[in-house]
Design a protein that fits this description.
This protein is globular. The protein contains 13 helices and 19 strands. Helix content is 31%, strand content 23%. It has helices at residues 15-26, 65-75, 96-110, 157-161, 189-198, 209-212, 217-227, 239-246, 283-307, 339-344, 405-411, 414-432, 445-454, and strands at 2-11, 31-34, 50-54, 81-84, 90-93, 113-115, 119-126, 129-137, 140-151, 182-185, 232-235, 255-262, 267-271, 315-319, 351-355, 359-362, 368-371, 379-382, 394-396. The structure holds flavin-adenine dinucleotide. Flavin-adenine dinucleotide binds next to helix 1, strand 3, strand 7 and helix 12.
């Protein structure tokens, strides 16, 4: 079997893996980033906004690799604006076509090596160490060894293959639905925002005190108008969309989330489709879901063009490259991030990343739990939640890190994933930079925090 050695192997090139590989390579480690798919960037390329980077008070809580990617996207002409959703959060809206180039430039510029269509297929484990990962590509199977391994597969594949314990799934409810994002171009913002002004009751507005700031729904609609961006959320339980669901013109959904992606194309991204699976890891169910979601894309884009002011001349301009998955496995780490700490905005001395997104758990049909972080602030993500229990040379980041279901429902957004990725990539490079066998727990958290801060991470000084 072919065999190669790196300092750090990152499995999965979504937002967490991209940041991990960049941070690892910039900190001097010979880094390999692999993905089973044909591209890098994950949901950063779907057109959705980057949430969890700016808290509801307007403070930036994530810095470093995210800035390089967003600045590159902006410099290329790719929209990249910080906006208030006037509902719960503030976010960064980007053009996904330019984002494809921005992510590639930052990753390749870091010196990390990239392999695509490369699936982590098996793991050789000895005691508390992963000794190698067997990958499968078009040429067959080969062995990759590294000092440190990072699981950014979203589904915790690497840790599962290594036999790590996973956190139990919620027995009473199914995992969050899977969805297919799509985009529509030729949207006329003015009539859309006039409609919001006339009918704020149809839209989700001011769902947290930090965003509402004592305003009435009417006053918030005025703010949305003043912002002048097609950034609105049609509510599934309000009359306009609700009656379309009742008469079967639309499938049941909590919200139709509309967010700008390009001023030049007058384009928005639409997040509305959904299907709940017992387990998104079962490929037969996942495969069937694709057909259902594509039908929903057609149904929702037709509904918007027919019914929503501003969409009369809009046309479908893009469908996400893959089904979006919100929730699968979660690894048991040295510690489990707790939903109460997220809700309370708890700060910690061992925090190596931050989150600020509301606890956001999509459910079947029109259901969705949305609980804002207290006072529009942020919470810290401790290093111990990024260390899989029982492994000494492995780290985890992204939506499969060690968190209870509520905490995952917040930290899973791309801001949090990018920040966790930067933290583990930096820690992995530091752990590999010794003569002794790499031990991620031997990287002092103080030392790691100061390295992260030197490199732009925001770890303190915010609400
Ligand atoms: C429909 C939807 C809407 C969302 N809306 C927003 C939003 O508006 N804003 C926001 O910030 N966040 C949003 N999120 C959440 C966010 O996009 C994701 O949680 C986040 O991108 C997850 O990043 P990740 O890097 O942890 O995992 P992923 O993006 O899932 O990346 C994992 C990567 O690992 C690869 N991989 C998996 N297994 C293997 C293997 N065995 N070998 C090799 N490679 C492997 C996969 O191909 C994939 O590229 C949304 C999510 C969904 C699904």
């Amino acid at each position: 079997m072919r065999s190669e050695k790196f300092d750090v192997l990152v499995v999965g090139a979504g937002s967490a893996g991209v940041a991990a590989a960049v941070a690892s390579a910039r900190n001097g480690a010979r880094t390999l980033l692999i993905d089973s798919g044909p591209t890098i960037g994950g949901e950063l390329l779907s057109g959705m906004t980057i949430d969890g980077a700016i808290n509801a008070r307007g403070e930036r809580i994530i810095g470093g690799v995210i800035d390089d990617i967003v600045n590159e996207c902006r410099a290329l002409g790719g929209y990249a604006r910080e906006l208030n959703d006037w509902r719960l959060i503030r976010y960064i809206a980007c053009d996904p076509e330019y984002m494809k180039m921005a992510v590639a430039r930052v990753v390749y510029g870091s010196g990390a090596e990239v392999r695509l269509n490369t699936f982590a297929d098996d793991v050789a484990r000895n005691g508390d160490r992963i000794e190698g990962v067997i990958v499968r590509d078009k040429q067959g199977r080969s062995l990759i060894t590294a000092d440190v391994y990072i699981d950014c597969s979203g589904d915790a594949d690497l840790c599962a293959l290594a036999g790590s314990e996973m956190l139990p799934a919620d027995k009473d409810t199914k995992p969050q639905p899977v969805s297919m994002m799509f985009r529509m171009a030729g949207v006329d913002t003015r009539p859309l925002l006039e409609f919001v002004r006339e009918h704020p009751e149809y839209f989700a507005v001011g769902e947290s005190d930090a965003i509402r700031g004592g305003r009435t729904d009417k006053e918030i609609a005025e703010e949305i108008w003043k912002q002048g961006e097609p950034c609105v959320f049609l509510k599934g339980d309000a009359d306009f969309l609700g009656s379309a669901i009742t008469r079967g013109e639309m499938f049941p959904t909590a919200l139709i989330m509309i967010q700008p992606t390009s001023a030049a194309r007058r384009e928005v991204c639409v997040n509305a489709t959904r299907i709940t699976l017992d387990d998104p890891l079962v490929s037969r169910a996942y495969g069937k879901a694709f057909g259902v979601l594509i039908d929903q894309v057609q149904q929702c884009s037709t509904y918007l063009a027919r019914r929503l002011p501003g969409f009369e001349n809009a046309a479908l301009s893009g469908v996400a490259p893959r089904i979006g998955v919100r929730e699968t496995r979660r690894v048991l780490g040295d510690e489990i991030l707790d939903g109460d700490d997220v809700f309370a905005g708890r700060k910690r001395e061992d925090g190596v990343a931050k989150g600020c997104h509301h606890i956001d758990i999509h459910q079947e049909g029109t259901g969705q739990i949305r609980i804002p972080v207290a006072d529009g602030g942020s919470y810290d993500i401790p290093f111990s939640t990024l260390i899989p229990k029982g492994l000494s040379n492995t780290l985890v980041a992204g939506r499969c890190f060690s968190a209870d279901r509520r905490a995952q429902g917040s930290a899973r957004v791309m801001g949090g994933c990018l920040a966790m990725g930067q933290a583990v990539g930096t820690a992995a490079a530091m752990a590999s930079d010794t003569n002794a066998p790499a031990d991620v727990r031997a990287v002092g958290v103080k030392h790691l925090r100061s390295r992260l801060k030197e490199q732009g991470a925001i770890l303190e000084g915010t609400h």
